[in-house]
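Protocol step 6 of 9: fold each sequence in the batch and record its C-alpha cells directly after the sequence line. For illustration, a two-sequence batch is reproduced in full.

Sequence one:
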Amino acid sequence: MGALPFPGSVKNNTANPLPPSPKEVFSANILGYLESSEIFQGQGGEVLDDNYVDFSTVQDSALVGSSIPISPWLWFEGKKEINDYEVKDGDTISSIAADFGVSSETVMWANSLSSGSTLKIGQKLVILPISGVLYRVQTGDTLSAVAKIYKGEVARIVVFNELSDENDITIGDILVIPDGVLPAAPKIIIPQIPLASNYFIWPTSGGRITQGLHFYNAIDIANSCGTPIYAAAQGQVIKEIITYSTSLWANRGAGSYIKLLHPNGTTTFYGHLMASFVNPGDQVSQGQIIALMGGQPGTAGAGRSTGCHVHFEVGGARNPFAY
C-alpha cells in the first residue's frame, strides 16, 4: 500500500505524555496517604481517624472534613476490568465466585446461569471484578433509570466505570452496576440483530486472529503496530478516547479506543490504538481509515496487551469473525 491519505489532525499516542489528570493524582495520593487510616467511606464502612481529617458536624448528623475532602474515588481500590475465565475440573459456581471475591449470583447473572446449571470443563465464563450486574446501554437509557432498575447507585456506577458524569454513556457501552441486583423480570440486556454475512468488513489491513471470541463479543486481530484500522461498516463516531497513559489498566485495559454506531443500531469497538484520525460526531464510511493499530506493551494507549493488535468488538449482533 502506498502513502495513506490520513485525514485531519492525527492524535498520536507516541507524543510526550500529558501529566495525569487532577482526578488521577488525587485518587492515587489519597489512597496511599490514608492506607493505614480509618475512613468513613467505601465498602468496609470504615471510619476516618481524626489524625488525618478534622471533622465538623453539620445539622447534628452529617460529617464533613475541613482538611482533606473525602473523594467518591476512595470506595473501590481494586482492578476494574472484566475477566474471561475457563472452567476447570472441579469448579463450581460458588467456588469460582469465592476465588474472584464476588457473589455466586454475580457469576450466574453475567453468564445466564442458574443455581442448577452444570458447568463444563473448558466453558468460558465472564467474571465481574465486583459483585453486581453487567448491563449494555440501549437507546434512550439514562444512568438514573438503569440504576433504579438494577438497584444501583448512580455515583458508584459513574466512579466504577470511569465516567466523567452520569451523562457520559453511549449506546453499546458495557457498564458494571456495583452491588446491583437483577430484577425478577429483567428487560433484554443484549439484543442480537440478524445481519447479512457481509455487513461488516475485516477491520484491519491484513493480520490474523490471535484470540477468539472473548469478552465482550470480541476478537483480537494482530499485525504490526501502525497497521491501518478501518471502519467495519458505515456509521458515526460516538466515542473516541485517546490516553497518553502507559498503564495496563488505562480505560479498564482497553487503552485508547474508538466506538462507532451503525445505522441498524449495532456498534463496533476498536481498542489498543496507537493513533486516531476521527473525532466524536464524525460520519465515517465503510473501509475508511479511522486509526492505527497499537498495543505494544509500555507504549501510550496500549492498555492491557501483550503485543500489537486491535480488540474488535461488536455490540448488538454476532461478531462475524469470531470462532
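Sequence two, same batch, same settings:
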Amino acid sequence: MPTARKFHYQFNLRDFTKIIQNIMQIEHSPYAKNPLGLARMWAHECHRVYLDRLILPEDVTKYNEFIANGIKEFSDFKPDVILAEPLIFTNFISVCKGHEPAYKNIFDETELKNILN
C-alpha cells in the first residue's frame, strides 16, 4: 500500500505489461522445450518489476509468499527450483561475446562479473 514513506509502491497494468514485453523479447529456440527456463524468466521479470521496488523486509517477505503461491498454482516445478540463484537474465553477455543480443539466463556469475568489470 502506498504511503508517504513508500510512495513508489504504485503498481498498475503498465508494470504487468513490462513483464510481458520483456518475455516477448526472448528467442524462441532456447525456450521452446524448456518450460523451466521460461518460468525462471517470468520470475526474474517479476523480481525486477515488483521486488526491486520494495524497501521493507516485511514487504519482501510478503512478495516472496505471493510469488511462491503463484508458482505452485501455475507450474509443475517447485518454487525452489524456479527461484534458484542466480536468477539473472540479460542480453548484453551475448553481445559482448560478439553474438546477436539474446535474452538468456546467466549461470556463471564470474563471467558476468568479468564482463561488467
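Proceed to step 7 once all outputs are recorded. Observation for sequence two: The chain has seven helices and two strands.
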